Every structure is written in structure tokens, then in C-alpha cells.
Amino acid sequence: MSLHTLTIQQLREKLRQGEVSAREATQAMLDRINAVDGKIKAYLWLNPEDALSQADTIDRSGIAKDGKPLGGIPIAIKDVINVEGQPCTCASKILNGYVSVYDAFVIKRLRESGALLLGRTNMDEFAMGSSTENSSWDVTRNPWDFDRIPGGSSGGSAAAVAADEAIAALGSDTGGSIRQPAAVCGCVGLKPTYGRVSRYGLVAFASSLDQIGPLTKTAADAALMLGVLAGHDASDSTSVPQPVPDYTAPLDRGIKGLRVGLPKEYFIEGMDREVETAVRSAIQQLQSLGAEVVEISLPHTDYAVAVYYLIATAEASANLARFDGVRYGLRVAGKDPIEMYGKTRGTGFGPEVKRRIILGTYALSAGYYDAYYLRAQKVRTLIRRDFEKAFVKCDVIVTPTSPTAAFKFGEKTEDPLQMYLSDIFTISLNLAGNCGVSIPCGFTSNPKLPIGLQVLGKPFGEEIILRVAHAYEQATDWRKQRPNL
Amino acid sequence: MPEDTSKIDVAYVAYLARMRLSVAEMAKMSAQLQEILSYVAKLNEIDVSNVEPTAHATPLSNVLRKDEARPSVDTKKILKNAPDSARDLFIVPKIVE
Predict the structure, then answer these.
(1) How does DSSP classify residue A251?
(2) Looking at the domain assignment, is residue B40 inside a domain?
(3) CATH number for the domain including B38?
(4) Which one, A177, A204, A447, B46, has the greatest CB density within 10 A?
């Protein structure tokens, strides 16, 4: 029996019935990882003994049989979320050797729900990038084509789920870092509403945008995971004290009469023809399921990338000031603290992180603050209002997740601006703070590469976007197509 | 937004960021930053004179808690990750003569 191919729901059923133990499920994952990860390199760190001992604890406790939502389910964690006793490097040399001293809020939640923490997945350094090429450690390959990127920054998590090396994974999304890799690897990626999931224990990149979310094989699994992750946490002052609904119960209610908005600004030149065709036929599918399509406008879309790269870099330059060689991570000696900071940071950070720290520092520096950071925050208000107005006319918004399928390694590394523009469809959502999910909606023909459909919702509208995703998934069989490994 | 972005003093900004860059890094970054800054200059097209800035997207402000002592992570555990420490303190190069 190939346990590694199962969804959370399927594996959970087997664990509950006592058909398989958590140890057997974990061993199946380890065997799968052993067989394929040499080629894909989704994981940065994995300790089989640790994973099996977590599994044994779960088996002894009987937690998998007593109805805990994730009892015995092995989950991969992006290397930016702290798990006590495991390394956390953010794929950066500056955190080489760092071992977490506490569990992130979401990790506590996963443990309480019976999940086991399988290992650490690769990413762009400090979550800055769209291809995982900015990792200081490893090149993660797209399971569908080894010459291509797995997306980013949660590229390791997406590749692990797509290659059946994890039943599900956690990622973080600041400008599309869950949705875009999910789209190009062919899995489901959910960015919850800002404030829905606590970031306590997530290494901060851009605090006004960062959000943790799940990468899964199905929309129903994403709903199940969100129910575990969501909720108020006093340790994150942006965490919103709003009740957590049952996200799985309404999934089968269908989408009859639901208004699906198509933003005209998203169907633009530069979008790959096959991506457009796949997204348009997905929209027809939604119509045939009873949804009503309305044209909407998000007029400030064209400014989102510019706003994002000022706000995200400004916040990153402040957040990453903590990596100074004093308390943790790399230290390069200097005759005084200033020299030590400069050498440590100059040695420890990779090129993209340095570029963003410089851009952010510049945008915040005396004489430029109003012109760059403040102006960007004002345009951010206009982008938020676009969404508010659009959601009067519709219940969800549907777009492509990424303008193209997975691109080749090295294609955009020398041109940062081109790399930034590949996030054009995902970035606005983080600026507005709303929720969004990417689901598979087809493939390019030659080579065969996954295409993602993005469903955007109102703040705290996860229930509805997951219902749309689930309805579409039930009506199509994209998810059943797996990479040939 | 400043029109002339041709002279970004990368060395000075790197000093502000406390991050040493090589001459080659600075040259490459200077060119790339100019390209990025001329792209973001498109924000000048919009009239924002009557628009309030958005700092973040939550409807919350001034989230406070009682100022009470509570247990935290053990000092010894934290110092295991420190590059240099002694007597429960971080050791750094001399700051004042």
C-alpha cells in the first residue's frame, strides 16, 4: 500500500480505524523521501529517528484513534517556522547551526492536534524570492521537470507535497510565497487572512504582510489544516480574536448562485496562452456548477508590485537588523561592535537579501521616507479599497495564480525586477490583507507543467474560497495526475 | 519621489544598514537598484494627497496586556545559540575605551 500518496483525510481514516499506525505512516514517508528526495531536494533537514520517535509517542497515546484532527499525520515545515529542538536557518548562512528554543504557535497547535513534524523544507533565504534559487543550501527541483524551479519562497514545501514526500506542509506567504509554488508544483496552497493565524515563532520578513498557511493535496485538507492553525494568540498583537468556524463542514454546499468576479486587469498581455486557456475553462466550469460570473475592476493592480517592493523591503530592513552576530547565528569577529555587525551581515546574507536590505534602508532613510515608504503606504490604501469595492459586486475573485507555469533555473536570477514581476497576481492580496487559495486547474502541453487557479476572498472569507476550491476540485481530475518520479 | 535616482550612494546606505559590501557587490547593486527605483517611480502617477496610509491590514490598534512578569525561555537554553557567552551574558567586542 502506498501510504505516501494519501491525503490527510484518507490517511486519517486509516489511522483512526487502526488499519495503520503512525509509525507505519511515518516509515512510508521516510521510504518515499529516501527514494525521491535525492533528485528533488525538498528537505533541508530530516531526522528519521526523531520522526519515528514522535510517531511512537503518538501510537502509545492512542491520539490517532481518539478523533484528533491530525492524529498521526506527518507534516513538513518550512525552514522559517520554529520547532523546538530542530534547526531553523531560513535557508541562510547567517543562521547556520541555529537550533530553535521554543515552538511557534502553529507548531503547538499541530502537536496538540496529533500531527508529527517530519522535517524542514527548503525556501528562498528569509522567504525572499519566487523560485527557491535564493536558498543558501540547496537547489530544489520541480517534481514535474527537474530543469525548472519549484516556485518560491515555499518551494521546498510545495515540492514535498507534490512529490508525495509529505502528506501536507506549512509555508509562509508575504507576497505569494504559498500560492505561487503551490501553483507551479500542482498542489493546493492557502494564504489565510492577515490576523487569522498567529505568526508567533515565524521568523519575520515583512510584518504587515506575513501570514502562515498550509500546502496540501486537496482543498478539504487545507480546510482541515486551517481549522487547526487558526485562532487568537496573545503573543501576536496582530492576531484577531475572531471565532474559528468549522471550515470542513460547509465544503459540500456547492457554489450555486455564488458571484465570481473576474478582474479585467488580470487578463493581460504577457500571460502565457496556455495559462489563460486553462483559467478561462476553469471559469466556465465554475459557471456550469452554478456560479454567476461578473466582471470587476481592481484599478490599482498595476501599482501593486511597486508598492510591495517598497513596503516589504522597508519592513525587512528593520526586521533583519536582529541578525547582528551578538545573540545567535554567525559571528565574524571585528575590533568593535560596528565592524563585527558589518562583517557578520556582509558574510552571512546572500545577494537577494542584501539587495532588499539596501533598498529598504534607502526607502526609510532621511529625506526619502515620505517619497517612498509613506507614498507606498498611501497607494496601499487605494489597493485595499479596490478589493472592498470589488467585493460588493462579487463573493470571490478568480484569477490565474502566476502568469506562467514554472520557469527554468537561472532564467530570472540576473534580473531582479523580472523576478519581482512574476508575483504580479499574488502580491495585491497581501497588501489588502485578504485570503486566497491556489488550486490546480490544468497543465501546459509540452513540457507538462501544472497551472494554478487563484480564488480570492474577503477578509475572514476562507470558508467561501475553500468551498469554491473544493467544488472545482470535485468536478475535475487534475489532482489525480501526479508527476512521474 | 526624487526624480534623480542616478546617484544612490550604496556605500552610505550599506553603512546605515551595518552591512559590509565588496566594491563589486556595490557596483552591481547600484545598477539593479536604479532599475528598481525607476520602476517604482510609477507611484508618482497617482494623486495621494487625500489618502491615509495603511500600515497593516488588521482592524486592531493598541493591543495591550497587563505588565506582569511571566516565565520565559531559560537563559542557558538561549545562550546555547550564542556565538560567545559567559556568566549568563552575551560577550561582544569592547564598546567603550
Answers:
(1) G
(2) yes
(3) 1.10.20
(4) A177
Q: Structure pTM? A: 0.97
B78 touches chain A (CB under 8 A): yes
Give chain B's domain count: 1
Q: Are B31 and A292 in contact (CB under 8 A)?
A: no
Tell me which residue of A110, A141, A178 sits closest to A38, measured CA to CA.
A141
Tens of each residue's pLDDT in chain A, 485 residues? 599 999 999 999 999 999 999 999 999 999 999 999 999 999 999 999 999 999 999 999 988 888 899 999 999 999 999 999 999 999 999 999 999 999 999 999 999 999 999 999 999 999 999 999 999 999 999 999 999 999 999 999 999 999 999 999 999 999 999 999 999 999 999 999 999 999 999 999 999 999 999 999 999 999 999 999 999 999 999 999 999 999 999 999 999 999 999 999 998 777 899 999 999 999 999 999 999 999 999 999 999 999 999 999 999 999 999 999 999 999 999 999 999 999 999 999 999 999 999 999 999 998 889 999 999 999 999 999 999 999 999 999 999 999 999 999 999 988 888 888 889 999 999 999 999 999 999 999 999 999 999 999 999 999 999 999 999 999 999 999 999 99
Task: Give domain status of residue B79, yes or no.
Answer: no
Asked if residue A446 belongs to a domain, the reply is no
How far is Cα B44 from Cα B67, in angstroms, rounded to an integer?
A: 44
Of the candidates B16, B32, B65, the beta carbon closest to that of A365 is on: B16
Looking at residue A144, which CATH number applies to its domain?
3.90.1300.10
B32: in domain: yes
Residue A310 maps to a domain:
no
Domain that holds residue B19: 1-46
Please tell me which residue of chain B has the smallest CA distance to A355: B29
Cell of A131: 523560485
Q: Which of B4, B7, B9, B40 to mutate to test the interface with A (most CBs of A within 10 A)?
A: B40
Residue A128 phi/psi, 5-degree rounding, is -100, 100
Which chain A residues in 14-73 lie under 8 Å from chain B, judged by CB atoms?
none
Any domain includes B30 = yes
Consecutive H or E run containing A281:
helix A273-288
In total, how many domains does chain A have?
Answer: 1
Does a structural domain hold residue A292? no
Phi, psi of A257 (to 5 degrees): 80, -5
Q: Which domain holds residue A7?
A: 3-258
Judge whether A21 lies within some domain.
yes
- Residue A260 forms beta bridges with which residues? A293, A396
Interface predicted TM-score (ipTM)? 0.93
